[in-house]
Amino acid sequence: MNLLTRGIAVSLILLCSAARSAGPDVDALIPRLARLPPATIAFTEARFSALLREPVIVAGEVSYLGPGSFERRVTLPYRETTAIHGESVRIEREGEASRTFGLKRAPELGGLLSGFAALLSGDAAAVAREFSVASTGDEKSWALELTPLTRNDRRRLRQILVSGAESETRCFAVVSEQGSASVMLLGSAAEQPIAGDATLDALLRRCRVE
Amino acid sequence: MRRTAAALLGLTLWIAALGVMTIFVQRRLEVSSDLRLFLPSPTTREQRLLLEDFGEGPASRVLVVALDGATPEELADVSRALVAALRGGEKFRFVTNGEVSLDSLPDELLPYRFLLSRTFDDQPLNAEFLEAQLVARTRDLASPAGLILEPWLPRDPTLELPKLLESWQPLREPRREFDVWFDGAGARALLVAETRAPAFDPAGQRAAIEELERMFGALDARGSIHMTVSGAGKFSDLMETRTRAETTRLGGAATIGMIILLLLAYRRIGSVILTLLPLASAGLAGLAAVSALFGSVHGITLAFGFTLIGVAQDYPIHLLSHRRPDAEPDAVARALWPTLATGIASTCISYLTFLFSGVLGLAQLACFTVIGLAVAGLTTRYLLPSLTDKAGSDHGNSLLLQRLWDSVARLPHPGWAGGVLVVLCVGIVALAPQPLWENALGGLTPVPADLLAQDQELRAQLGTADLRYMLAVTADDEETALESLEKLDAPLRELVQRGAIRGYDHAARYVPAAATQRIRQAKLPDAQALRAMLETAQARSPFRAGVFEPFLEDVTRARELAPLTVEQIGDTALGTEIELLLRRSSGAVTALVTLSGVDDAGALQQLALGAGPAVTLLDLKAASESLVVRQRTRILWMLGAASILLVGVVAFALRSGRRVARVIAPMALTTLVIVAVLQAAGISLTLFHLISLILAAGLGLDYALFFEHAADDPAEQRRTLHATLVSVLSTLLVFVLLATSSLPVLRAIGTPVAIGVVSNFVLALLLTRPAPAVTRVTNSAQPK
Lengths: 210, 784
Known about the structure:
Number of domains of chain A: 1
Number of strands of chain A: 11
CATH class of chain A: Mainly Beta
Structural class of chain B: alpha+beta
Number of helices of chain B: 32
Number of helices of chain A: 6
Number of strands of chain B: 13
Oligomer: heterodimer
Largest interface: A-B, 40 and 27 residues
Distance between the termini of chain B: 43 Å
CATH superfamily of chain A: Lipoprotein localisation LolA/LolB/LppX
Shape of chain A: globular
Strand content of chain B: 5-15%
C-alpha cells in the first residue's frame, strides 16, 4: 500500500507541476491532479514503526504506468522492485525469492486504492466518497488531509497527507496505527537525505514548510 | 365385469386391500440410490477403496463451482462472498476458493509451526540466521508488504507460518486472480465445496445444491453472473430429476395407449379395470415384501422390478381373451391354469437364482419379481374369475382372427431358418467392432457425455487429483504410515522433476511423523540460548529490544509440545484434506498419495515396487472394470443356472422333448437375435441389457406356451391369437416408448425388450405353431 500511495503521490506531483495555480479549494485542486501516464520520479522514504528504534530509510524512483499500474524501485540501501498491477502486488528483492500477494488480503487497502485512483483521475467527487478531505495553507504551500470515512479503513490507515508548493507536490505521508507511518519525499524534496535519527513529527513539518 | 353384489363386494375388498398395502409400503419403503447395492462385494483393496470413494468418500462429495459472466474482479468478489456464506450454512463441510488467510491455523496450534516447518531441517535456528531474518524483516517493513506483516512480526519474525501455508498449497496450483482460483483463461472463478451428504443421497445433495443456489442468488443481485455446478452429487440429483420427469411422461403416454388398446380389444371399461388389478396387486405385494425383508429399496430395483412384472399384465389378458359365452370364467381360468402356472413357475424359479447372486440389489429384484408374479398369477386364477362376466361373444368365433390364423397357418415351417438365424447372429456378434460388454462402471449410471466432459475440464483447471491412479500405503498405525509417506516424498519429488507426474499430495505434507517432529524439537534452542541469540541479532537491527517476546514464548512452548497428531488437526480447514488422505479401518491405516497429471504410470509402478510390500500403485479404472466384470460373470452364471432350471420346469410340465424344444426355441433364438441387433447397432451390453434379456425371455416363454397349449383346437387357437396379439401390442407400446427415451438407462431397457417382443412373437408363430392337420406327436418339422 505504501507503494501505491507513493505511486499516486508521484502522479500528484506531476499533475501539480502542470497546474499553474493551486489553492486550498479542494474541488479546484484535485481536478488539476489528473495526469496521463507514464511518469517517473525519484523518492526518499522513511518508514516509522512501533517495532523500530529508528526509521528505515530507502531511496529510489516510482513510476505511474497507467490506471492501477505502478512500479516502485528501491536502489538504496538495497535493490528491490515492487510491481502493482490491478490488485496483484509482486515484490522482488535481490537475494530473495519473489513474493506475490493480493491487495484484497488487507481489506483496508481497498478503500485507499480507490481513493488514489480517484485522485489520479482528478475526480474530486470520487475522493470525497472514500475520504473526508481538509485543506490547509495557501497556493504557495498547500496540504491536503485525507481521512477514511469508514471506521474499518481507519483502523489501520488513520490519515493520508499530501502536501506541495504551488505546482510541486513535495511530500506524501501515510499515518497508520499508533507509531506506524511512512513519509515519502518526492522530486526536489527527495534530494536532501533524511537523517537517520529523524522523527515523524520533524519530517511531517518538513513536508509543510517551503 | 360381473355386476352381482358378491362380485362388487369382492372388488371393493380387493381395492381396499390394495389401499392398505399402499399405506404400508409408503410407510416402510425407503428408496435408496446408493449404486453399491447393485455391485458385488469388493474382494481387493482397490475395489474396496473404489466403492468407499464411490458412495461416501470425500472425493465423491466435492462439487466444483464455476462463476462466469462478469469481470474477474466482480467474480472474485462473488466467489469470496459465496465462500463466506456457505461456510456459515449447514450443508457444506468444507468450502474453498484457494484464498489463504494467516488465521487458517487455530491460535493454539501456532507454536506447532516449528515442528511442522522444514526450515530448520538443514538450517539451524542460530544467531546468524536470526540476524539475516531481521534484516529481511526490516526491508519487508519498508515495502508494500509491511502493512500486512507488521502485526505478525513480533510473534513470527522468521515467517514460519506463511512458509508453512505456502507449502500446503497444491503443488500445481490453479491460476489466481485477486487471490482466488480461476481457470487458465482467467474467465471463470472456481470454488470447491464438499457437501455433508454423501454423493448418492440425492435428497441431501439436492438440499445442498439448493442452498448453494439460494446463496448465490442473494449475492448476484444483478443476475448477470452465471454459475455452473459440477460433481457426482450434482449428477445424481440431475439424473434423478430427469429420469423421474421422463418416466412420468413415458409412463403417462404408455398408460393412455394401453387403456385405448384394451378398450379396442374388449370394448368394456370394466374389463380394462380388471386387467389392471393383478398387475397393481403384483407391484404392491412385491414392494411390501421387499420393504419388509430389506428395509430400503434401490431406485434401480424399483425401475427394473416394475419392468419385469410388466409380463403380469398378460395374465388377465389371457383370461379375458379366452372367455366364451358357454363357459363360466372360473372354468376358463382352470383350463388355462396349467399353461399359465408353467410360465409363472419357470420364470419365478429362474429369478430365484438371483437371490444367491451375492448382490443385494439383485436379491431385492428377485424377491420383488417372484412375489409380484406369483401374486399376479394367483389373483388371475382365483380372484379375477369371480369378478368376471361370461363373455357376450367368443373370440374363437372371430372371422377376422380366423382369416389371420389361416394365413399364418399357410406359412411354411422353416426348420432350417433357425439354424440360419443362429449362424447369422453369431456372425454379427463376432464381427461387431465394439466389445461385447461395457466394462466401465459409468455404464451403469450414464451421465450425459457433455456434462462429464465439462466436469473433467473444470477439475483439470483446478489441478485436482487424478481419479485413476494413486499410491496406497498400508500400515498398522498412523505413525508408521506417516513415516512411510515421508520416505516416499523424495522419490516422488524426483518424478515431478522428471515430468512423470505433475504433482502429488499426501498426509505427511501436513502432519509430519512424530519422529520427525521430535527431531525438529530437539534442534530448537532453549529459552536462554534463544534469548541471547535474539538480543545479539536485534542489537544489529533497527528493531527495538523486547519486541519479539511472543516469538520466544512460541519457541519455548514448541520445545515442550507432544507431537501434533492427525486427530488434533481434524477440526481445522486441513481436516478434510487429511481425512481423504489417511483412512483408518479395522485396526489398519491406509494412507493415500494422490497424484495429478500422471504421464508415466510405469515410473510410478517402479517406485511402488521399490518401496516395499506396504506400498501399492492403485489403478482405480482397472479396479472398477474388474468389479463390473466380476459382477457380470456372476450374473451370467446365475442366468446359466436359471436357464437350466427353466428348461427343467418346462420339461416337467410338458413331459415331451419335442414340445419342450418347440417352446424353448423361440426365446433362445430371440435372446440371440436381441444381442445381435444391439451389437449391429454398435451397443455394448450392460447390466440393464442383461435384465432386459431375461424379461424378453419370460415373455417369449409365455407366448410359446400358449401357442403350444392351443395346438389342436381351432377356436382355442384363435382365442390364443387374440390374447397374444393384445399382449404383444401392449408390451410393444410400453417398450417402444422407453426405447425412444433420451436417457440411456431407459433406452437400454426399452430397445432389447421391444426387439424381443417382435422376435418372440414371430418365432413362436413360426416355430411353436404346429402344422395344421398334423398331430403334435408326429410333427417332425420342429427345430432342435
